[in-house]
Every structure is written in C-alpha cells, then in structure tokens.
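Reminder to self: tokens first, then the designed residues, so the page reads top to bottom the way the pipeline ran.
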C-alpha cells in the first residue's frame, strides 16, 4: 500500500506515520518511509540517531543539477533507480527511510528542478515493488498543488478535534480529490470519545481516533522517539483499522 499522510501543522502526522511504519515492520512487512517535510523529524520519531539521518535530497544541489539540470532545460524524466540506495537508510530490519525534505527547503526560486527529481523518485518508489510506502508530508495544503503525491494509492488526513485543524483537513481532502486521489481517510488525533465531527464539513470517512497519550508527552521530554509506548497494543489496533479502511 502506498499512502501519504497530510494535515495541519502539529496535528500528529509524523507520529502516526511512525506508528504505522513500526506496526507494519513488526508484522513482517517491508516499509519505505519518505520524509517530505522541512522539519525532517521522521528519523528522530523512529528513534534514529541524528547523525545517521541521511542528507535530504533537496539539499543535494550537485545531484539535482546532475540529474535534472537547472535553468532553461529541465529533464522531467531523470534517472533515479540508483538513488534510492544512495539516499536512504535502514532504520532497522524492514524499515527504510528516505529523506527528501520539501521544495521550500531547497531555497531555489520556483523549485522546479528539485521538484522534478523529487517527483521522479516518488513515482519510482510507488511503482518499484509491492513494498509499503508511507510519505510524511509537509503541513498544510500548498504542497499538494505540486503534484508530488498524485501517484499514491491513498491519503491519510490527520486532524485534531479543533475547527481550524478540521478546516485544513477539509481543504486538503478537496484538493486531493481534484488531483484524482479518491481514496482518503480521516484520522483524529488527541481526540476523546465524546468529540463528534461537525456534519457540515466535507471530510473523508473516519478510520481511527487516537486519544492523547500522557506516556508520549512524558517520553517526548527526554526522547524524540514516539515508539515503544506502554499503549503499543492499542496503537497497533488503530493502525490496523487505518490500513484496512
Ligand atoms: N496522541 C498523542 N498523544 C500525545 N502526544 C502526541 C500525540 N500525537 C502527537 N503527539 C505529540 O505532538 C507533537 C507533534 O506531533 P507531530 O510532530 O507528529 O506532528 P506533525 O503534524 O508531524 O507536526 P509538523 O506539522 O510540525 O510536521 C509531538 O511532540 C508528538 O509527540
Ligand atoms: Mg511532522
């Protein structure tokens, strides 16, 4: 399954991406994670040492120039098959991380060249095999217009139980629908069972509802990792629900 995870800033996209990947890897599945956020926090969320995190693709100017060129002529179909091994790291058995970063982080005008390489690499990852792919997206809606994720099978829209987060979720969902991404699910994070979704908002179907975990809040004070919480079985159950939705 190839999925992207989107939502407003800080709602828990990276955390849920890490939980899904960790669950799948423990179930014996091969998982590729793509960090497509400027904050580059997916590695640390998986417990990966900072010095082991690969240099984001968007920062590799020489490589971008070599593969797609810059200026007037951009090769929209660059060679990427050798780049996966070069740009990724094995976090642990079955769990691979590829750090792309975002176009905003590339620091170059329109970002066409890095975007072309990023897109080609994602498309290659989507089509390369039957492995699972999870893309942790930048917060908000703007990146959707760049079309980098149009080839994934589905979109997980994460939201907190707040009107602003749900507004962003609805916007993301509408844009993704326009892009042809019809398979979408909503995941509520840090939500109590008493919260009911506003019926007026055009939101994807609710696949799971994660409560707020005080164990995670406490853990984050001493570690960037979001894994190995005492509630792991409950989290696994919710991940399973999301993947079956
Ligand atoms: N269910 C939860 N219970 C307690 N803490 C949580 C929960 N989900 C996420 N958090 C905490 O909230 C913070 C933000 O989560 P996270 O980084 O996953 O959000 P994000 O949407 O990826 O943010 P950004 O938009 O900056 O990429 C983290 O410190 C994370 O540990
Ligand atoms: Mg994040």
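Designed residues (245 positions):
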């Amino acid at each position: 399954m190839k999925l992207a995870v989107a939502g407003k800033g800080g709602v828990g996209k990276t955390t849920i991406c890490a939980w899904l990947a960790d669950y799948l890897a423990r179930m014996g599945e091969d998982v590729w994670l793509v960090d497509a956020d400027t904050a580059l926090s997916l590695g640390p969320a998986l417990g990966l040492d900072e010095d082991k995190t690969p240099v984001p693709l968007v920062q590799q100017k020489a490589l971008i120039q070599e593969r797609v060129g810059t200026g007037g002529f951009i090769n929209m179909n660059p060679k990427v098959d050798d780049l996966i091994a070069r740009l990724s790291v094995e976090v642990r058995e079955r769990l691979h991380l590829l750090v792309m970063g975002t176009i905003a982080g590339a620091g170059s005008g329109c970002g066409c060249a890095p975007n072309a390489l990023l897109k080609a690499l994602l498309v290659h990852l989507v089509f390369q095999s039957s492995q699972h792919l999870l893309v942790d997206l930048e917060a908000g809606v703007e990146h959707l217009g760049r079309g980098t994720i149009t080839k994934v099978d589905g979109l997980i829209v994460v939201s907190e139980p707040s009107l602003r987060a749900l507004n962003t979720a609805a916007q993301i969902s509408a844009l993704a629908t326009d892009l042809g991404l019809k398979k979408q699910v909503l995941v509520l994070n840090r939500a109590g069972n008493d919260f009911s979704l506003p019926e007026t908002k055009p939101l994807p179907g609710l696949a799971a509802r994660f409560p707020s975990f005080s164990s995670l809040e406490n853990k984050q004070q001493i570690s960037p990792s979001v894994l190995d919480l005492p509630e792991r079985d409950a989290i696994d159950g919710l991940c399973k629900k999301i993947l079956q939705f």
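Confidence is low (pLDDT under 50) at residues 105-109.
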